[in-house]
Amino acid sequence: MLTPELIAVVLAAGKGTRMKSELPKVLVPVLNRPMIEYLLDSLQAAGVGKVIVVVGYRAADVQATLAHRANLVFVEQTEQLGTGHAVMTARAELAKHPQAAVLVVAGDSPMTRADSLQTLLAKFQELRPACLLGTARRDNPTGLGRIVRDARGGFVGIVEEKDASPEQQAITEVNMSAYLFQSAELVNALAQLGNSNAQKEYYLTDVPGIMLKRGLKVLALDVLQPSESLSINTPEELKIVEAEMQRQRGGAD
Predict the structure, then answer these.
(1) 52 bridge partner residues
(2) Could you give the C-alpha distances from 89 to 84, 94, 205, in angstroms and in order?
(3) Between 35 and which of 30, 60, 135, 141 could a Cys-Cys bridge form, CB atoms 3.0 to 4.6 Å apart?
(4) Mean pLDDT rounded to a whole number for the chain
(5) Which CATH number applies to 6-249: 3.30.460.10, 3.40.50.720, 3.40.309.10, 3.90.550.10?
């Protein structure tokens, strides 16, 4: 079986107001490197051929910072209307690769590991779902979306913490914002994505549910490491990530 072409969509449009920095969030330094550089290194090591970077706030600065990298295509999200809307801005590029596997990841996730992405891709190739979510188990899942499964263990949906029942809040399997999609099915689902929520935003977390309703195969596998869920939204989280990076560099894992 041939390995599908692998392209990535990196969500990198945010301002990162809570970082207390004028920089676009993905350019905030982590151990003296823009945080997005670590993610792009992992994507390259995992075999991603083309990376679509969704930029927004101070887009020109992000493009200039990443100008040294090959195989990047930039698309601009002129209004930040949610993660689903961000991926919508890449539809024209995705339509050029209807047979590809599309990896969607957040640009503020510098702990993402190439070996985890390769494991996810191998499962995607083996099982051929329309969507495969990479999840992790967290002893303390506070703040993260929970993965809801049925009695047989099948994926049912993602419930954000603020919407979760006490029973759902006790779930330790969490959404890592790492998705693999069949490109054509992703483009189709994005066309059906709505914004009927309090924020009037388009959420990528709704896309797996859209696919399920169409009878498509959607799977979630907890193949990611807990440390990979360390994204950066605040100066405090930045310190946690830097400490974890230094710990891993010291030989621990």
Answers:
(1) 9, 73
(2) 9, 10, 16
(3) 30
(4) 94
(5) 3.90.550.10
Question: Under a CB-based contact definition with an 8 Å cutoff, are residues 188 and 115 in contact?
Answer: no
- d(Cα 197, Cα 202) in Å, to the nearest integer? 9
Q: Which pLDDT tens digit goes with each residue over 180-215?
A: 999 999 999 999 999 998 889 999 999 999 999 999
Whole-number Å distance between alpha carbons of 41 and 66? 12
Look up residue 15 and give its amino acid: K
The Cα 4–Cα 8 span in angstroms is: 13
Q: Tell me the mean pLDDT in the region 70-95.
A: 96
Q: Are 36 and 12 in contact (CB under 8 A)?
A: yes
Burial of 155 (0-12, 13-18, 19+ CB in 10 A): buried
* Nearest of 185, 189, 32, 204 to residue 105 by alpha carbon: 204
Is-catalytic flag, 247? Answer: no
Listing DSSP states for 41-83 in one string gives HHHHHTT--EEEEEE-TTHHHHHHHTTT-SSEEEEE-SS---H
Q: How much is the average pLDDT of 34-57?
A: 97
pLDDT for 76 beyond 90: yes
Residue 35 structure tokens: 């945080």
